[in-house]
Amino acid sequence: xxxxxxxxxxxxxxxxxxxxxxxxREFEGELFIVPGVQRELKKYGVTLQLAAFLDTKVRVLTPAxxxxxxxxxxxxxxxxxxxxxxxxxxxLALASELSATLVTDDYSIENLAKALGIPYExxxxxxxxxxxxxxxxxxxxxxxxxxxxxxxxxxxxxxxTSRPKKT
Length: 167
Fold this sequence. Notes:
The chain is an alpha/beta fold. It contains seven helices and eight strands. It folds into two domains: about 1-120, 3-Layer(aba) Sandwich (Rossmann fold); about 135-165, Single Sheet (Rubrerythrin, domain 2). The strands form two sheets. A five-stranded parallel beta sheet has the order 3-2-1-4-5. The chain has a three-stranded antiparallel beta sheet with strand order 7-6-8, with no helix packed on it. α5 (about 65-80) crosses α6.
């Protein structure tokens, strides 16, 4: 009985984004995706091999709305809310709920995962080295704002996320 419990606790859980699945990398352990990843994969076209893998090895789960709201609130703090899609937020929420490792090559997902203490792994790209708190730069007058505005309060041009310069 003790051996069985030890083996069961050693199973690793992974939440996979589209890039992880499209990479062709093999995964062991419990594998999860959110419904949005299924929709993204349909856009790219799913091979028979990937379809069989999804049907037999991957569970599709939807995170709780409360968890998604927590993720969205943290994303506002880091500035990643303007860089992440609803599917990205769902992936982070599910990884949080399952205490799973999130597998992605998306640096904004990695950035927020780091801020939330969610373990993550890169697929093909090197992972981020440090957490970033994004600022917002006006595309017109180039003024940098610490918070998001739909348009620049000075000149009315759109804002873009901008990595703060190291001091």
